[in-house]
Write a structure and sequence with these properties.
The complex is a heterotetramer of chains A (117), B (227), C (1038) and D (303).
Chain B: H1 2-24, H2 33-44, H3 51-59, H4 61-81, H5 96-118, H6 127-144, H7 152-177, H8 202-225
Chain C: H1 5-22, H2 26-53, E1 59-62, E2 73-76, H3 78-97, H4 99-104, H5 107-125, H6 129-146, H7 153-184, H8 199-215, H9 223-231, H10 234-255, H11 261-282, H12 288-309, H13 315-343, H14 358-371, H15 378-392, H16 396-422, H17 436-461, H18 469-479, H19 485-503, H20 509-529, H21 539-555, H22 559-578, H23 584-607, H24 617-620, H25 628-641, H26 650-657, H27 663-687, H28 694-714, H29 719-740, H30 743-774, H31 790-804, H32 810-825, H33 828-853, H34 869-887, H35 890-901, E3 909-911, E4 914-916, E5 921-923, H36 924-945, E6 949-951, H37 967-970, H38 978-984, H39 991-1010, H40 1018-1036
Antiparallel strand pairs in C: 1-2, 3-4, 4-5
Chain D: H1 3-36, H2 45-54, E1 59-61, H3 64-82, H4 102-122, H5 127-157, H6 162-168, H7 177-180, H8 182-196, H9 220-245, H10 252-272, H11 278-286, H12 288-302
Helix pairs in contact in D: 1-9, 1-10, 2-9, 3-4, 3-9, 5-8, 5-11, 5-12, 8-10, 8-12, 9-10
Classes of the chains: A mainly alpha (117), B mainly alpha (227), C mainly alpha (1038), D mainly alpha (303).
Chain lengths: 117, 227, 1038, 303
């Protein structure tokens, strides 16, 4: 599905734009989430085969000829892992944000650049 | 301003880089050889109705173990980051209605969650999805009462042991079936295709994953919720 | 044999259980924690042993009962085992290092650490691309969390930047993996083939590769990494810099087979660029950990480049190069990061606390030398072979960039080192507490570094034991360092003589001659060091190392052996110079120039054709025709060591600031190593006359060195500096005479070398004696010491006559030979300049003897005594030597004649005591008798007829009928040749010094402006990464 | 030849030349006086001076180097002279020229200067080192054109052997270096002005600034030794120049005439010009005479 592919890339770019322009740490994390989501959509969409069903081989699928009737299960499997990992990273990022805010009472990324050169 | 231009340039560059994918991408009409093998294998070797599940739990079981580990790590990481005692928030007690409803829903959601992860090899869903559902149940409780205290020992116990059992099941395969059989689900009988008790150890693994994911996510939400 | 899957599962299970285990006490959980880490090391260690030494085949472990590509498989071969062994070992030792932290911190810290190692192990072993992603995320996430082990604003913000950068990189990775799957239908590395890739396939591969590459921190997309290195606890940062980097580097290694060649080339160059710029920027760095960060990033760049450029080499060589760099980086960097955690000082200037802490200083030194790629450490061998390989591949731009980068690295690392030893004395610090848990891992790593060096020397190169002698000397002397310095001195003297005896049979002819200069000269000079009080810790070890390296130069058979000894010589002399009180800057200058010279030599030797014979290099080199580029590079390298004009600025500083009994070694002997080398180049050169007459220009440089050195010497106020410039001038003569490439020329070069060794040793020792008594080197602060130190005076008198070339002493022989050879060669104008130089030398010679020994004695020196006997003895040995060869020049001319005859037809006739060239003749013996006659006759006359003479007191002079008010105003000594300076006008300005100063300023400000890239803003870093991806994408031309 | 006879010849040679040199010194003082419009001392004044100073009752020494300084000086003069073959073909006046060539002579000149400088240095008087510093500096400068000229000669005759050089100039006056290599002679003659330390190069003993310069502390016998040397050393240098550039001499009268004329050249210049400052003197030598010397080398070597 070319549209979902386009959507995925679009989200990716939008997310990056957010990460690059937003000053608020939480918004940056959100940007990252959007990038992640975009990636996931891209992954899922490449597994799509037009006109085929989900790779769950219950009674609706002819078992003898199953491989001809279902979409690619691998991207689905991969995306699941990717999602979980994305979630994990996001959670950790948010914890960092919380911690940073607790320590410095600021959510602006500009306040965290004393390390340089 | 200059930074803006650079940002724009960077994004335009990225778009230029991705454009070939959108322009020249031609979708497969057939499953890849590997996928076909998975589909066949899922039926013949693993007796698993849900091919995605067989891929996740068996063929790419190491990934999944890693994935669980990632979640576990996140729990540990969040716990490590937010390791200071959290302060009790002063809040108005939530209404009776909310509490009752949430407790009612809690049981329902938990049961649904359990259903989803135990049927991971048959229907869409599985350990992760079930685990997440279970978490939502706890989230509901937390939302209803912010100062809710969980019994951490149980949570930890579930978390630890589901993980350890998962690893142990993996190792059983390895010990029983040989050195290439880490995480081999055929240590348990494969059962009948399409039944709950089929697909060897897959449902067991998926259930353990469900428990682990549920307990871990709950811990994460609990940790972060208090901050 | 434990299945490697246990490495993953045991740690994992332990990680899962630790929360529960911890409930029964931290002690138990710590036991489990360290137990598992050690078990990992053990398992992997066994595998490494089997795979490497028992030739066990590579194991492949499939999972889930299916084989790849259906299931994910793990692979454990020799390379994996090597990487894992060191990763796990580092992890274990880092954990030991963090023991205190782990005892107190939340249990999650232990879990994170344990699982991080799972990530590393999995990442290295897995063959599945997506699985790599999962393991790399395990690694990253645990690292992110561990960054907050020390919870500061800095570490948190660094961690956040790291996460974002890592997130972006893994997005690219994920996209790459996805599309690779789409285009190849596979995720397993072993099943992905390049053959049928479409354009999109290449882009996918590119995305994957660039993601890994970004994790390797290429310049300039690496700001986040620097911040992490700076902000994070030393124990954790060593894991990040070493273990993580190693794992990701290995991932890069794994995906390399599927990368197209044009990507690899681009990445290789990008690695080189990273190496160069990181090290350049390191120049400006004041913060110790960030400095290490820059170095670390640079090293990874080098590692990548070396991997890519050595792919086609034979396996064993590639392992030496890549493994050498890898190992060197891993071990040294971890150790140094640990030391930063022990010292706990951010600013380099505060590191002088190390001064009072010998064990730590030794560790620091070992690791730093290893990191900088000095022998005998692994990095040295890797660099040598790598440069050789690049040169053979004609990749000169890469070689140049890498060597320049290495030079920068040496500069900033050793600036740090010298500051630690010689930093500002004023700042007082409390002593550093040496916790066992922190010292233990550091010591282990320093030990492993040495061990590996030994293994490489023994098994890869199979060196003669002689070549390890310099290092052994240091070690042995260190063991007996508790003895008083006199005993060690006598032992050293014995050792040097024994060494000389040992290598004597290996020598012949020209080597024997230099052997006398190097070994006998050193032995006599050692007597001067016997005056040391106390223990002089470390001194004799370094001294022996230097002397043995001199000797080893003579018996070196291969280029590498020669270069090895050369580097040992540099190291030891650098450290010896550094022992001087204010020698920080001086030793740095010396090191910088020496290293630059060494790098040029390295390229030069790489260009040289293989040696055919198996005899000593100085003999076999005559069969080899060095290409013109090699000749030039080697000559420059040797001329740097001999202090030729343009690259001489290290020389006065080093001579002046070294301890006064070290200076004679540096001046009289070390410079001759350069002479020896130049002679060696000349030997090859004369057998083959290339079209471009390089030695003509070397001759000019030598001549100009002589005149400029003489002038500079004349304008000094510092006695040792004066002597140093004098050495420069004298060696200029020697270089010029070598460049003549004739029998007479080489005869004069060797003759003067020998003379110079004697008179410059004696002069420096004399000045050492004066300094010992008066505590000043500034000449105008002295004066009239002839009354107090007559023996020293006589020695200086004889030596300056010898230097000046006034008959009847041996110096005249040198002058006679040199002018004859120049005229014979037809170098008339050069000879004119040398005449001028020899005239100017009278200025400084008179100055040094007059301002110190003659004129008015200062009040504060009324009570000084003659120099200690230990200084007098060597001087008089040298006087005897000078007198002997003055009286009987044949003693030395005859053997030198026969040496030079090996290379040229003899152009002199020796008839009795008369030596005749085609131009003139000289009878040293008769000149001596005539001089004695004309001297003694007036003397007797005066003694007979001037009996009424009376001695007068100090101020009894014809002074306008007044008594001078003080010796200071009466002693004409300060700025003695002011009028000459005036006469020279613009020619008297130190332009060369200014030039090098500008070079230094310029590179530092360049470094400063480039590092402004790293704004510290996380978003900018993301932008860098994205821009970097795009730029590399378009350069690779996918 | 018996070594004792050789020594006897050397003694004779030295005595003759010393007397000649001292007389020359007297004549020069006379000439200077007349130029200045004075009557001037007797021509024999140098001899009288030596006898007088030697006979002084008070003699002081500042130390052993001070004591040795004049001896070094005289030995330098003696040695320089003794290594020069004075009269071509004469056995008596061939001296010890078999010991070494032109280079030996050139470097032996420094022997006395260095020794004297050291002796004077121990005197402790500030004028001594001041004068020495100037003298050494000027020496480095005038040595440049001189050594260039010597190199040119070495190229021309392909030898440093003084006897050979003189031999090559025999036969006709046109064989003199003066005519065969005029540029070298010009360079060398200019540096002779510096060597003789007459004005404008009299900075070492400059009477206005550092009265009598380095020997200021020297007295009695020490001074007498120096004065003796002055005669001998001046003559030695003149003989060297004569040998190098003016065909040498085949007998004593020719030697006396030639050296006298050479000396007159520097006296003439000295009487006509005021004194340079030190740096002016050095710059002078390093400019034109040096260029002339270089030109002479280029001319002789490449044309």
């Amino acid at each position: 599905m070319i549209f979902s592919l386009i959507l995925g890339f679009l989200l990716l770019i939008i997310g990056l734009y957010g990460m690059l322009t937003q000053k608020n740490l939480i918004k940056i994390v959100i940007g990252f989430s959007i990038v992640d989501t975009g990636t996931h959509i891209i992954i899922v969409s490449i597994g799509y085969l037009s006109g085929k069903t989900a790779p769950i081989l219950d009674s609706t699928v002819d078992l003898a000829n199953a491989a001809k009737q279902v979409v690619d299960p691998i991207p689905s499997a991969l995306v699941l892992t990717a999602i979980v990992i994305g979630l994990a990273v996001t959670a950790l990022m948010l914890s960092f944000v919380i911690k940073l805010y607790q320590k410095n009472k600021s959510l602006s990324i500009d306040d965290y650049q004393e390390l340089k050169w | 301003m200059i930074k803006r231009i650079f940002i724009l340039l960077a994004l335009v560059g990225l778009v230029l880089m991705f454009i070939p994918f959108l322009r020249d991408f031609d979708f497969h009409k057939e499953l890849s050889k590997l996928s076909s093998q998975y589909v066949e294998g899922s039926i013949n070797d693993l007796n698993t109705q849900n091919v995605v599940t067989s891929v996740i739990v068996t063929y790419r079981g190491l990934d999944t173990l890693g994935e669980v580990t990632v979640l576990f790590l996140t729990t540990a990481g969040v716990g490590f980051l937010l390791r200071k005692k959290k302060a009790s928030l002063k809040t108005r007690r939530s209404s009776e209605l909310l509490q009752t409803a949430s407790q009612f829903l809690f049981v329902l959601i938990i049961l649904t969650g359990i259903f989803i992860f135990t049927h991971g090899h048959l229907t869409p869903g599985g350990g992760f999805q079930g685990g997440v559902l279970i978490t939502t149940a706890f989230l509901l409780l937390i939302l209803a009462d912010v100062n809710l205290k969980f019994n951490y020992s149980i949570l930890h116990f579930v978390e630890s042991f589901s993980g350890v059992f998962y690893v142990m099941i993996g190792l059983f395969g390895f010990l029983i079936l040989g050195m290439n059989s880490f995480l081999d689900p055929t240590i348990l009988p494969l059962g009948n295709y399409g039944k709950l008790l089929s697909a060897g150890a897959i449902p067991v693994i998926y259930s353990l994953i469900g428990l682990k994911v549920g307990s871990e996510l709950t811990t994460i939400i609990d940790k972060m919720g208090g901050e | 044999m434990v299945n490697p899957i246990y490495i993953l599962t045991l740690s994992l299970a332990a990680g899962f259980l630790l929360t529960l285990i911890d409930k029964s006490g931290r002690k138990l959980s710590l036991t489990v924690f360290y137990g598992i880490l050690s078990l990992n090391v053990f398992i992997i260690g066994e595998w490494f042993y089997r795979l490497t030494f028992l030739n066990t085949p590579t194991v492949i472990i499939n999972t889930a009962g299916f084989s790849a590509p259906l299931s994910i498989n793990l692979q454990l071969g020799m390379q994996e085992a090597f990487v894992l062994l060191f990763a796990n070992l580092t992890a274990l030792l880092s954990a030991v290092y963090l023991f205190k932290k782990f005892k107190e911190t939340h249990i999650s810290g232990l879990i994170l650490y344990l699982i991080m190692i799972v990530g590393v192990n999995g990442l290295v072993m897995t063959r599945d691309l997506f699985n790599m992603f999962v393991f790399s995320e395990i690694l990253s996430i645990s690292t992110y969390a561990l960054i907050t082990l020390t919870e500061t604003k800095k570490s948190l913000s660094a961690g956040f930047k790291y996460m974002i950068a890592g997130g972006i990189a893994s997005t690219f990775f994920l996209l790459g993996v996805t599309f690779i799957y789409y285009f190849t239908g596979n995720l397993n590395l072993d099943f992905i083939h390049l053959g049928n890739f479409s354009n999109l396939g290449f882009i996918s591969i590119f995305l994957l590769a660039i993601a890994v590459f970004i994790e390797l921190k290429p310049f300039p997309a690496n700001g986040w990494a620097l911040d992490v290195y700076e902000a994070v606890d030393s124990g954790i940062v060593s894991v990040i810099a070493v273990v993580n980097s190693a794992a990701i580097f290995f991932v890069f290694y794994k995906i390399m087979p599927i990368l197209p060649q044009n990507f690899l080339n681009v990445f290789g160059i990008a690695g080189v660029i990273t190496f160069f710029f990181s090290n350049l920027m390191g120049l400006k760095q004041k913060n110790a950990k960030r400095l290490l960060g820059y170095s670390s990033i640079g090293q990874i760049g080098l590692l990548v480049a070396s991997l890519i450029f050595t792919m086609h080499l034979p396996r064993s060589l590639m392992y030496l190069i890549v493994g050498g760099f890898f190992f060197n980086h891993l071990i040294a960097k971890a150790g140094l990061f640990w030391i930063t955690g022990i010292v706990k000082k951010e600013n380099l200037k505060d590191w002088n606390v190390l001064k009072n802490n010998k064990p730590l200083l030794v560790l620091f030194g070992i690791l730093l030398f290893a990191l900088a790629g000095f022998p005998p450490f692994a990095g040295f061998w890797a660099k040598w072979e790598f440069v050789k390989m690049l040169v053979h591949g004609k990749m000169f731009f890469v070689v140049g960039t890498i060597l320049l980068g290495s030079l920068f690295e040496v500069i900033f690392l050793f600036r740090w080192f010298t500051l630690s030893i010689k930093g500002d004395e004023k700042t007082e610090h409390k002593n550093i507490s040496l916790e066992l848990s922190k010292m233990f891992p550091t010591t282990i790593f320093a030990g492993i570094t040495i061990l590996i060096s030994v293994l490489i020397m023994k098994f890869f190169y199979d060196f003669n034991w002689l070549h390890a002698l310099p290092v052994l000397a240091v070690l042995i002397i260190n063991v007996i360092d508790f003895l008083p310095s006199k005993i060690k001195g006598i032992l050293s003297l014995a050792a040097v003589l024994t060494y000389g005896y040992l290598i004597y049979p290996l020598e012949s002819n020209i080597q024997l001659f230099f052997g006398i200069i190097f070994i006998i000269g050193s032995a006599i000079n050692i007597i001067g060091t016997l005056n040391r009080k106390g223990k002089s810790e470390g001194f004799y070890g370094l001294l022996l190392m230097m002397i043995f390296s001199f000797g080893n130069l003579l018996v070196a058979i291969t280029y590498l052996e020669f270069f090895l000894s050369w580097e040992f010589m540099t190291i030891s002399s650098f450290l010896l110079i550094l022992r001087g009180k204010k020698a920080q800057k001086a030793s740095m200058l010396y090191l910088i120039f020496s290293t630059a010279g060494a790098y040029l030599m390295m390229v030069g030797f790489s260009l040289a054709p293989d040696l055919v014979s198996n005899s000593v290099l100085i003999l076999s080199i005559s069969n080899v025709s060095l290409p013109i580029a090699a000749t030039i590079l080697l000559s420059i390298g040797f001329m740097i060591k001999s202090g030729s004009l343009g690259v001489h600025i290290w020389l006065p500083e080093a001579h002046a600031e070294a301890e006064s009994d070290v200076s004679p070694f540096i001046s009289a002997i070390l410079l001759k190593a350069g002479v020896f080398g130049l002679l060696m180049v000349g030997i090859s050169y004369i057998k083959h006359t290339p079209s471009f007459d390089i030695f003509y220009w070397i001759g000019w440089i030598g001549v100009l060195t002589a005149i400029v050195g003489a002038f500079l010497a004349s304008f000094q106020e510092d006695a040792k500096r004066l002597l140093a410039y004098s050495s420069m001038s004298q060696v200029g003569y020697i270089v010029a005479s070598i460049a003549i490439l004739s029998h007479l020329g080489w005869l004069s070069a060797m003759y003067l070398s020998f003379n110079h060794m004697m008179f410059k040793s004696a002069l420096f020792i004399a000045i050492a004696g004066v300094y010992y008594r008066t505590h000043t080197r500034t000449m105008y602060e002295m004066g009239g010491l002839i009354k107090k130190m007559p023996l020293s005076f006589i020695s200086v008198l004889i030596m300056i006559i010898a230097v000046s070339g006034v008959p009847p002493l041996s110096g005249f022989g040198a002058k006679w030979l040199i002018y004859s050879s120049f005229i014979e060669k037809g170098w008339y104008l050069q000879a004119g300049v040398l005449f001028f130089a020899s005239g100017v030398s009278f200025l400084y010679l008179y100055r040094i003897i007059h301002t110190i020994f003659l004129g008015q004695l200062k009040y504060e020196h009324q009570n000084v005594k003659e120099a200690p006997i230990w200084f007098i003895i060597p001087q008089y040995i040298f006087i005897i030597g000078i007198m002997a060869i003055s009286m009987f020049p044949n003693l030395i001319i005859q053997p030198l004649n026969s040496i030079a005859m090996r290379y040229f037809n003899s152009s002199i006739i020796i008839d009795g005591y008369t030596i005749s060239s085609s131009l003139g003749y000289w009878n040293g013996n008769l000149v001596m008798y005539v001089t004695m006659g004309v001297f003694v006759v007036p003397l007797i006359f005066l003694m007979l007829f001037n009996g009424r003479m009376q001695k007068v007191k100090q101020f009894n002079i014809v002074y306008a009928a007044e008594r001078p008010e003080s010796p200071q105003t009466t002693h004409v000594a300060h700025n003695m040749y002011a009028h000459y300076r005036k006469a020279l006008g613009g020619w008297g300005k130190p332009r060369i010094w200014d030039f090098w100063h500008e070079v230094s300023e310029w590179s530092h400000s360049l470094a400063d402006s480039i590092r402004q890239l790293y704004t510290g803003n996380g978003q900018t870093y993301i932008l860098h990464i994205i821009m970097y991806v795009i730029v590399i994408y378009f350069i690779s031309g996918v | 030849m018996n070594i004792w006879i050789k020594i006897l010849y050397a003694v004779i040679s030295v005595l003759v030349v010393t007397i000649y040199g001292l007389t020359l010194g007297g004549i020069v003082r006379k000439i200077y006086a007349r130029v200045h419009g004075r009557y001037g001392p007797s021509v024999w004044q140098p001899f009288l001076d030596i006898i007088k100073t030697h006979g002084k009752r008070v003699s002081i020494s500042h130390g052993y180097m001070f004591y040795l300084g004049p001896i070094f000086r005289l030995a330098g003069g003696l040695g320089t002279y003794l290594f020069i073959p004075v009269i071509f073909g004469s056995v008596v006046f061939s001296n010890f020229s078999i010991a070494g060539d032109l280079l030996l002579v050139m470097y032996f000149i420094f022997f006395g200067q260095l020794g004297m400088a050291l002796g004077a240095g121990e005197g402790g008087h500030p004028y001594s080192p001041l004068g020495i510093a100037r003298g050494l500096s000027q020496m480095t400068a005038f040595e440049v054109p001189f050594s260039l000229a010597v190199i040119a000669i070495a190229i021309q005759y392909n030898t440093f052997n003084l006897t050979t050089i003189v031999a090559a100039q025999q036969g006709s006056i046109l064989n003199w270096t003066l005519f065969t290599n005029p540029l070298a002679v010009v360079a060398a003659m200019i540096s002779l002005l510096g060597m003789n330390m007459h004005p404008p190069f009299s900075i070492v003993l400059a009477p206005q600034e550092i009265p009598i310069g380095p020997p200021i502390e020297m007295n009695s016998s020490f001074l007498a030794t120096l004065q003796t040397n002055r005669g001998l050393f001046t003559a030695a240098k003149l003989i060297l120049f004569m040998n190098l550039f003016f065909g040498g001499a085949t007998n004593l009268p020719i030697m006396i005439i030639k050296t006298f004329l050479i000396y007159m050249f520097s006296v003439f210049v000295g009487a006509s010009f005021p004194r340079f400052r030190p740096e002016q003197s050095m710059r002078f030598f390093l400019k034109w005479p040096t260029l002339i010397g270089v030109a002479s080398i280029i001319f002789i070597a490449y044309f």
